[in-house]
């Protein structure tokens, strides 16, 4: 038999092209694209289906420590399972360095949690919170060589935020090692100032989470991150951009020739701060940072995608259960929004939302959908061309989509560890009906057919996008 599997009769879509063709798969890789490919052990009929590169979600959080008494709703088993149901074949969760911990110690614990648990492939970004001389001088350069070729830094949060000096030092190491640097851009002091003032006035309900981190907080930090990266001459990725001000900062930097990239997420296209303003604690379901803004900000994020100011669309899946004292309804969170765990689930809904609201409604074309959902993630984070496209020699990571299927999003379709979806009741057109990871079908027509442990850890190359031009 020439092939293990042939996907027959579908329309293949890459970030560049759309064409009718069969896909021959052997040993987990794409071995041929063409017609009349001959025999295979298994034929998958893709008539009326789109054959897309499996989604790559380069911004998810699984099993991340999130504060006293708070437990993230997904570990690697449920998180990667939900990812597979959403048409994803690779995810990039974060490995958080806790204060006083070495990066190697942090990695050891995340690898132990992921080992044998994953349904889709996984690679780790590092989060540097304690940039000691040892971490920056020795550990980080060695880890980049070992395939951990991206890291995130925070400009806010107690225990996570770096000072400007620390940002510059960390950026310098990213530059010298060729790692991709991701920045969470919000001004810590401004948030603390506003939060204290709101609490003093008794404004503690979840909706004040949005009031405590308004647009200037994000815009200023985005501007500062860009300026600091310009001083060091290092490419950066501004993650989870929520509004026009921050988007325009990135656009201006790009127009000046700086290599500043941007990411936005479904919550900034679909939610607004009104979602946080609900009876009792219901608004806590939508507490994430930066917060959802308003309709004009949604429009700005669409423009950022349409005009390619943003290069990736990620979920920022950061799930907590709602009806749970270890989640959104933690006792302290009832006393103030300050203590409500930050983050919302979304790894399974990212792509159906972008497909329906973007492609079906004519805001972006199908090839851009593939670029935002897979190809650009692979290119920017050192996985291309093994991942992120449909080409001979690439891994057979494929999602079959029914572009016409109408679905009402319900939590029972999500298969994560949370107990709600922020998009409950949203009607979408287009749905991933089969997900294949390295030639093996893991989700077929709403059923999990793969098993834990098929997902592999992926060491990554240095991203060309992060290479310093000397
Ligand atoms: N930043 C993230 O990237 N995810 C969740 C919370 C946060 O602040
Ligand atoms: Zn962040
Ligand atoms: Zn995140």
From TrEMBL:
The lineage of its organism: Bacteria, Pseudomonadati, Pseudomonadota, Alphaproteobacteria, Hyphomicrobiales. Belongs to the metallo-dependent hydrolases superfamily. Hydantoinase/dihydropyrimidinase family. It is an enzyme of class 3 (hydrolase). The modification N6-carboxylysine is found at residue 152. Its EC number is 3.5.2.-. Its cofactor is Zn(2+). This is D-hydantoinase. Keywords: Hydrolase, Metal-binding. InterPro entries: Amidohydro-rel, Hydantoinase/dihydroPyrase, Metal-dep_hydrolase_composite, Metal_Hydrolase, Metallo-dep_Hydrolases_sf. GO terms for molecular function: hydrolase activity, acting on carbon-nitrogen (but not peptide) bonds, in cyclic amides; metal ion binding. The keyword Translocase does not apply. NCBIfam families: D-hydantoinase, PRK13404.1. The keyword Amino-acid biosynthesis does not apply. Carbamylation allows a single lysine to coordinate two divalent metal cations. It comes from Bradyrhizobium ivorense. Residues 50-442 form the Amidohydrolase-related domain. GO terms for cellular component: cytosol.
């Amino acid at each position: 038999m020439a092939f293990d599997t042939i996907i027959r009769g579908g329309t293949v879509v890459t970030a560049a092209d759309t064409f009718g063709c069969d896909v021959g798969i052997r040993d987990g890789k794409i071995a041929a694209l063409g017609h009349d490919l001959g025999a295979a052990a298994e034929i998958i009929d893709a008539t009326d289906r789109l054959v897309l590169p499996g989604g790559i979600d380069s911004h998810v959080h699984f099993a991340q420590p999130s504060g006293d008494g708070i437990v993230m709703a997904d570990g690697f088993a449920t998180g990667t399972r939900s990812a597979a149901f959403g048409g994803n074949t690779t995810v990039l969760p974060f490995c958080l360095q806790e204060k006083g911990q070495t990066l190697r110690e942090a990695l050891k614990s995340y690898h132990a949690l992921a080992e044998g648990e994953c349904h889709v492939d996984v690679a780790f970004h590092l989060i540097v919170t304690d940039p000691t001389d040892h971490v920056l001088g020795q550990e980080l350069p060695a880890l980049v060589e070992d395939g951990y070729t991206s890291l995130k830094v925070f400009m806010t949060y107690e225990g996570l935020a770096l000072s400007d000096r620390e940002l510059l030092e960390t950026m310098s190491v990213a530059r010298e090692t060729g790692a991709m640097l991701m920045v969470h851009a919000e001004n810590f002091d401004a948030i603390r100032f506003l939060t204290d003032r709101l609490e003093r006035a008794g404004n503690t309900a979840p909706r004040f989470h949005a009031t405590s981190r308004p647009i200037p907080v994000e815009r200023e930090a985005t501007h500062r991150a860009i300026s600091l990266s310009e001083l060091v001459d290092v490419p950066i990725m501004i993650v989870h951009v929520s509004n026009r001000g921050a988007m325009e900062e990135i656009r201006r930097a790009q127009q000046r020739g700086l290599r500043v990239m941007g990411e936005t997420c479904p919550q900034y296209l679909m939610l607004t701060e009104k979602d946080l303003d609900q009876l009792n604690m219901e608004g806590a379901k939508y507490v994430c940072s930066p917060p959802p803004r308003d309709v004009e900000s949604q429009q700005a994020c669409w423009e950022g995608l349409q005009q390619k100011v943003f290069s990736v669309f990620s979920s920022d899946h950061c799930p907590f259960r709602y009806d749970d004292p270890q989640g959104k309804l933690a006792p302290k969170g009832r006393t103030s929004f300050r203590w409500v765990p930050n983050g919302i689930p979304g790894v399974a809904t990212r792509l159906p939302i972008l497909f329906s609201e973007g492609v079906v409604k004519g805001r972006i074309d199908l090839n851009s959908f593939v670029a935002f959902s897979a190809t650009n993630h692979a290119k920017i984070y050192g996985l291309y061309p093994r991942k992120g496209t449909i080409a001979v020699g690439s891994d057979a990571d494929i999602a079959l989509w029914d572009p016409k299927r109408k679905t009402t999003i319900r939590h029972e379709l999500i298969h994560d560890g949370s107990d709600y979806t922020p998009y409950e009741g949203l009607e979408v057109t287009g749905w991933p009906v089969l997900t294949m990871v390295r030639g093996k079908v893991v989700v077929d027509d709403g059923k999990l057919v793969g098993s834990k442990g098929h997902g592999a850890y992926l060491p990554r190359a240095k991203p060309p996008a992060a290479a310093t031009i000397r």
